[in-house]
Specification:
By secondary structure, this protein is mainly α. It folds into 2 domains: about 1-170, Alpha Horseshoe (Serine Threonine Protein Phosphatase 5, Tetratricopeptide repeat); about 170-280. Helices cover about 60% and strands about 0% of the residues. The chain starts with about 50 loop residues before the first helix and ends with a helix. The relative contact order is 0.09.
């Protein structure tokens, strides 16, 4: 297996070469699984293997025993377990049960990217690897204050491009498209962005649906205006918007709906009905 330096990854394959694979499916989020008794209030026994350490850590977190859970996950992460590394990375990135520490999160995500960049996209570890590349890209977009991780839009693009192309990750496809919409570190190219948005939107990535809808509704350089189809994607995105961070999605939909003609609204419903039949 080749090792990759996540801080200096160059594009390894052409952006047009897509190996579509399942994206992050069942996240290691600490929710009860088939092997966890419902309502468990305490963790009993001690782990003997790496997999047992992961299960022990997840159950400890569910039971409110954060310190035990982190210790158990850290042991598994130190042995190279991608799921444990991903969970700890997310905890430090979001300050979930621990003090937020972006450098620790960055290091865990880097370990996953370095060890699993070449994994077959169908393997269980691939979903963690894809998400790790997206997380690293997000860090490079803004940098981490008082650290060696500086803002570097080119590296961010490389991270997103690899996960988008090799793993077919819809989140990476969306973030890559945003760079080409905004011209951040790359020449602005709405048509190229729309191709990536289309791939992610078809997989249900609601942010991509919103961005694609916005492009189609208004039209852009090289993209003819397709108001009804744009409004269809915006409707899907609005329905999936879940929190305050998604206000831009709702605002984009409301602006388009207000400015759409009655015929465009009616045609958007037709497109929506046709789309829903294809995803059932």
């Amino acid at each position: 297996m080749r090792m990759y330096d996540a801080s200096g990854l160059r594009p390894l394959i052409l952006l047009f070469t897509l190996v579509l694979a399942p994206s992050l499916a069942s996240a290691f989020d600490g929710t009860p699984g088939a092997d966890a008794p419902a309502g468990a209030a305490a963790v009993v026994g001690k782990p003997r293997t790496i997999e047992e350490s992961v299960r022990f850590g997840a159950q400890a977190l569910r039971s409110g025993q954060t310190e035990q859970g982190i210790d158990s996950l850290r042991y598994a992460a130190d042995q190279g377990h991608a799921g444990a590394q991903w969970k700890l990375g997310r905890m430090y990135a979001e300050g979930e049960g621990v003090e937020r520490n972006d450098i620790k999160a960055f290091d865990y995500f880097s370990q996953i990217a370095n060890m699993h960049a070449d994994d077959n996209p169908a393997t269980p570890e691939a979903r963690f690897a894809a998400d790790a590349f997206v997380a690293l890209g997000a860090y490079y977009l803004v940098g981490i204050p008082n650290s060696k991780v500086r803002r570097d839009a080119t590296r961010a693009r490389d991270m997103f491009a690899y996960a988008a192309s090799y793993f077919g990750d819809p989140g990476a496809q969306y973030h890559l498209a945003r760079l080409y919409i905004d011209g951040d570190g790359v020449d602005r190219d709405p048509r190229f962005a729309a191709r990536w948005l289309g791939l992610a939107a078809q997989k249900g990535q609601y942010q991509a649906q919103a961005a694609l809808g916005g492009l189609l509704f208004k039209g852009d350089d090289g993209i003819p205006r397709q108001a009804a189809r744009g409004l269809m994607w915006l409707t899907l995105a609005r329905d999936a918007a879940a929190g305050p961070q998604d206000k831009w999605v709702v605002d984009l939909y409301e602006d388009a709906f207000t400015n759409a003609s009655s015929d465009e609204r009616a045609m958007a419903l037709v497109y929506l009905e046709q789309y829903m039949k294809t995803v059932r």
